[in-house]
Amino acid sequence: MRKKELATLVIERLKNEYPKTHCTLDYDDAWKLLVSVRLAAQCTDARVNEVVPFLFARYPSIEALAEAPVEDIEKIVHPCGLGKSKARDISACMKRLRDDFDCKVPRNFDALLSLPGVGRKSANLIMGDVFGEPAIVTDTHCIRLCNRIGLVDDTKEPKKVEMALWKIIPPEESNDFCHRMVDHGRAVCTARTKPNCEFCCLFDICKKRI
User: Fold this and answer.
1) From the first residue on, what is the mean pLDDT of each consecutive set of 10 residues in the chain (210 residues)?
2) How far apart are CA 115 and CA 113, in angstroms?
3) Would residue 139 show up in a list of annotated catalytic residues for this protein?
4) Which of 64, 86, 95, 147 gives 20 to 30 Å between its CA and that of 193?
């Protein structure tokens, strides 16, 4: 079976399994999602969702967060881990949005990549979830499952996985496909325990590269 054919089957089955998929980071504004996705590095979305209400209550706008002392940001986001570097990136990112983008998150992939602390994964998440553009977010779940299923061949580098998926995933399916990979990676095809292959909707088409 060719990878494009396999991808079509995977998309349809995951749609049936997880019909209502979405980003599990809570946000009501694009800049807040930028902050949350930076905090989510090596941290669970659930923990980030617990922490950011305190940050946004104290600093409720891009301007306020841009002017906040980095040390204050670090104290609040410390439970998410890597507090010093994350606080530094968040502060620098908000300053760039204030000074160069009129306090608006740019609707341009390259412009997003120019922001401090924003990589391809974060930029794709913003493009897909905020602006409704085709986007492939290669987080750890997506990379792990794509290798196990056989959608990519022993490719762990996020950008290489992303580029490979663009060739086989229809653009209109890309954003929800990645969210469903996260859903499936958390519920069935887990990382830290033995995958629950007997309950997997992809059992008969998966390459099972575990």
Assistant:
1) 96 97 96 98 96 98 98 98 97 98 98 97 97 97 96 96 98 97 96 89 92
2) 5
3) yes
4) 86
